[in-house]
């Protein structure tokens, strides 16, 4: 999008008017929580927006006087029966002049010269272009990261990221940093809905492109910081895709890459995230003591950040490690700390990547701890809570919690209920590709084999047997 020809002084001559109506609609939710609600509403109508706490803040500050068409559709879906003016925005006609759509080669999208440029804002033409770029991620290309201007590196035309730094190119800027951040959001959204197995290999090219950007560098330190944070978060996300699809060695490598990036950039938030996932991986890989130590290191990094919810999640990671060590007391102490920190509520300091962490995830992770300790009844109780509380948009997590419930019920001696839960998971596998969920179902099937005559068990075992085997 072309930048405004107005000078800084002319922009500042017209200070924005805060959107108090929109602020009231947010209510007691934090900007981050409200942004998550906007993204969920967008998915309900098959729309795509990259809403975050910063965008909500800019709307409420009046910097965004009228949203783009994508956001308009989402907001009107969230608040049916209202118009944009009812939501505190000015009419589109007040910010979109007729002269904006003039003839000529590649005209700039219409943009109010008094309204600061925002990468979240674009007209229908740019929206369609962005939609194509986002879909390109699912087709295996590197266009998600290349969306803004990675073209000079040759990635969009078949070049390789490894060769990129050797070419004479301009330095990375705001557009590249924004495209990188969007790639991270897009991968997380796709994982939430579909699981990791179909995404992991397709994420390799964007990750290579991200680190190629770091090699090229940026003119401004603020952009360099965004590139480091974006590349590190992308490494964590790709590591999670490897982790959830059973590629533990690959996941360990990606998490280590993210941790190294955090250390180089002196980024405690990224460091806490990398250690958090390293702890989770260590638990799953049968290294519980490493899980405890990584979780404790994450807590040290996270304390200055001011997010009680983040510290709560990290305490749960520690609890998982203690459970793996069969240390019930250590596990219970960490669980108590996690619950107390969670009870402090959300805040603006909560990282964007923690949008999955709510009541359901808290219950689900506690269920995993009790399951590891062999307390199947308590595990089943928490797994049932997790499945019941989970937002339906997080399809993968619904499948995960229900698979946990099925396994806990089977081991607790309730084969009929376990089979019913297992059948619900099988119904979700058309949408979810997760080796973790499949592995859990396979374990449940083994436990239920001696109970084939119990109600529903035979149906579950037969349907499970029909599942296509992973390559």
Briefly characterize the structure.
With 471 residues, this protein is mainly α. Helices cover 61% and strands 0% of the residues. The chain has a domain at 14-21 and 23-91.
Would you mind describing this structure in some detail?
The chain is mainly alpha-helical and 471 residues long. It has a domain of 77 residues. 61% of the residues lie in helices and 0% in strands. The chain has 22 helices and no strands. Helix 15 runs antiparallel to helix 16 and helix 17 runs antiparallel to helix 18. The chain starts with 7 loop residues before the first helix and ends in a 6-residue tail after the last helix.
Provide the helix percentage: 55-70%
The residue ranges in which pLDDT falls below 50 over 5 or more consecutive positions are: 1-13, 96-169
Q: Count every helix, treating DSSP H or I runs of 4 or more residues as helices.
A: 22
Shape annotation: globular
**Distance from first to last alpha carbon:** 44 Å
Give the number of DSSP strands.
0
Strand content is: under 5%
H/E series, N to C?
HHHHHHHHHHHHHHHHHHHHHH
Main structural class: mainly alpha
Radius of gyration: 24 Å
Mean pLDDT: 78
> Could you describe the largest sheet, including whether it forms a barrel?
none
